Fold this sequence. Notes:
With about 450 residues, the chain is α/β, with parallel strands linked by helices. The protein has helices at about 10-15, 20-25, 70-75, 80-95, 105-115, 130-145, 195, 205-215, 235-250, 270-275, 300-305, 340-375, 405, 410-425, 440-460, and strands spanning about 50-55, 55-60, 65, 125, 150-155, 200, 220-225, 230, 235, 255, 280-285, 295-300, 380-385, 390-395, 425, 435. It has two domains: about 10-80 and about 355-460, Aspartate Aminotransferase, domain 1 (Alpha-Beta Complex), CATH 3.90.1150.10; about 100-335, Aspartate Aminotransferase, domain 2, CATH 3.40.640.10. Helices cover about 40% and strands about 15% of the residues. Helix 12 (about 340-375) packs across helix 15. The relative contact order is 0.16.
Amino acid sequence: MTQSRVVSGIxxxxxxxxxxxxFSKVSRNVMPGGVTANIKFFEPYPVIMKKGKGAYLTDLDGxxxxxxxxxxxxxxxxxxxxxxxEAIRNQMEEEGxxxxxxxxxxxxxxxxKIQQLYPGMERLRYTNSGTEATLLSIRMxxxxxxxxxxxxxxxxxxxxxxxxxxxxxxxxxxxxxxKNPNSIVESKGVEPYNIEHTIILPFNDLEAxxxxxxxxxxxxxxxxLEPVQGGFIPAEQDFMEGLRAVTKKxxxxxxxxxxxxxxxxxxxxxxxxxxxxxxxxxxxKVVGGGFPVGIVGGSKEIMDISAPTAASDVxxxxxxxxxxxxxxxxxxGTYNGHPTILAAGLATIEVLEQEIDNVFETANQLKSGIRxxxxxxxINVQTIGMGSIFxxxxxxxxxxxxxxxxxxxxxxxxxxxxxxxxxxxxxxxPLNRYSLATVHGEKEVDRTLNALKKTLNSLF
Length: 460
């Protein structure tokens, strides 16, 4: 593979975004690293946006981009969809408040809709993010099984907290055997306790996973996984069915983290696609219509361990002499089930019920176009993913099934291409998956493929 580069992608990017560079210097004096979330940063500095509409973002320099990040997949109807915006305004104007602080009708309306789409969620609770949803899922599993270890898969991400910030992106020289991975801490501030209490499994390897789970069956409360790793490496059908069978046999709960895949693989998520029902499901992102939200649901038997009684309120001092709080899983949050968010979420689902097939068709057109352009240059590429999310991987491997398979791809070339695309008005964080929305169409696909064609022609 011969390249004749004159200007690197990062150099092109710098030339197009001087205002973002200047702003990033100021922002570092306000926030650590200049960002409020580490995931928003990329070298040498992130693009600073000032406007979004439909499929497009506009930055401080006035550059317009086709947006494929879509807030890491959250905006499946794009920026400022009219029906979502109308639902937000109606809720605020008709109900006269942004927050009741009490139960309200939208909690039940959204809940019934979710139960229709995810029948395994017989009871559910709202949270304020996907991270909170997975955290509550794990607490539910601890409380229900009275076991206090979890198992997660190498390469899977479930949020920024201690139990799961292990072996998300481990160095291969530390990761251990492929069939029995080490538990590698991924952040400062993670107690060593979690190395022993978070067991790492090899994704898409049922035999090795079964062996590890069997060995630790009396300690593990639950297995948590992304049915599609990173939003783009799918589980094999046999693996999913086998995992469901072995967890049932061993008395281990199965948690699907569908924060990325919920609605993006179909309205019923990955569990509908695979025909596999987990014990607990965690949702987030798309269901908030652009607002922060999470939902945890599962069987009535599991979820009802959080049902309050008169004697189970940790804040009710009058019950202190006969408190039963320790007998109930305490879950609370002032903003849980926020009415404006649920109004936006219901409107989002209504749009997707009409237009989701169009999103999948557009994604397939883009994937096909990307493969064709690389083929013309004699470069092996795979467009991996399902539904409305995918990634393109430059690799000689025939199939990508796990984190370790992915490490054999050409990250350096892919990153350089991503920076060139940024300079040509195609927005995604370098190396990130592509997410599509109802607002992406033929115009956006053509613009993207033209930018990729120019990039490849400049490189090869």
